[in-house]
Structures are given as C-alpha cells and as structure tokens.
Amino acid sequence: MMEQVPGALGTSASLALRLGQTIFCSASLLFMCLDVEFYSYTSFSYLVTVMGLVTPWSMSLALIDAYSVFINCLPRQPRVLLIVVVGDWTLSFLSLAAACSSASVASLLVNAGNSYCPTKLCSRYQLSAAMAFLSWFLSFASTLFNLWLLPSL
C-alpha cells in the first residue's frame, strides 16, 4: 500500500492548498492592478508577472486535484510528480522574490511620504505584497508535501 501524505497531489488537502494559492494570487493581482501606476516600479511589474504565472499553474493543479478527489484516482506517476515538484519549487521561489521586493518598495514608498505615493495607493501595494506572501506560503507547503511523497514512488 502506498503512503498517503496529506497535502500531496491528488488529495483534498492539496485541493485546499491549490484553491488558497489561486485565491491569494488573484487577490494580489487585483490589488496591484486596480491602478496602472505600478508600471513605474520594476518590483511591482515583477510581482504582476510572477502572479500571472502562478495563477494558471495553481488553477490547473487545483483542477487535477478536484478530479482526483471526486473520482478517487490518485496520480502517482513519478515523472508527473517530479514535474509538479519542480514547477512548484520554481514558482515558489519566484513568488517569494516578488513578494519580498514588492513589500520592500511599498515600505520605502510609505516612508518617503505622500509625494511619491498617495496613502490609498501605497496601502494597496502593501496589501498586494501580503497576498503574495500568503500565496508563497501555501505554494511552498505544497512543494514540501509533494517532495516528501516523491521518494516513496
């Protein structure tokens, strides 16, 4: 009998992680893109680009998880799981870098005063960075669960 790791691909916990990633990525994109002034700062553009990559990745894996949960068919091929682990690992570190850079620039703009960034706009940038951090946390947790399962296949 194969080991059942909670949070690994094809489980209901993985579906919850993927849905959370999708929600937080979409929220990060929404808060960042409510105003088009984010193009003035490279780190904000980088966050939008990375969240634009993470959102379809998480949505497609959420669909795979939903199919696996409702059909009771676990996808346990080593190559498929390896692709998921590498994709999650890569996008996890990209989203961490984007969240950190956006949070630091938003903090710098808040400390610089209203001349560079109005309070309402800066608070949206900070909220977008916070959503990106939450998305990164769920993505990294999913990576670790799948990495834990990979040697047992």
Automatic annotation (TrEMBL):
<keyword id="KW-0812">Transmembrane</keyword>
<comment type="similarity">
    <text>Belongs to the Casparian strip membrane proteins (CASP) family.</text>
</comment>
<dbReference type="Pfam" id="PF04535">
    <property type="entry name" value="CASP_dom"/>
</dbReference>
<feature type="transmembrane region" description="Helical">
    <location>
        <begin position="80"/>
        <end position="109"/>
    </location>
</feature>
<protein>
    <recommendedName>
        <fullName>CASP-like protein</fullName>
    </recommendedName>
</protein>
<feature type="domain" description="Casparian strip membrane protein">
    <location>
        <begin position="10"/>
        <end position="138"/>
    </location>
</feature>
<comment type="subunit">
    <text>Homodimer and heterodimers.</text>
</comment>
<dbReference type="InterPro" id="IPR006702">
    <property type="entry name" value="CASP_dom"/>
</dbReference>
<dbReference type="InterPro" id="IPR045009">
    <property type="entry name" value="CASPL-5"/>
</dbReference>
<keyword id="KW-1133">Transmembrane helix</keyword>
<feature type="transmembrane region" description="Helical">
    <location>
        <begin position="46"/>
        <end position="68"/>
    </location>
</feature>
<keyword id="KW-0472">Membrane</keyword>
<feature type="transmembrane region" description="Helical">
    <location>
        <begin position="129"/>
        <end position="150"/>
    </location>
</feature>
<dbReference type="GO" id="GO:0005886">
    <property type="term" value="C:plasma membrane"/>
</dbReference>
<keyword id="KW-1003">Cell membrane</keyword>
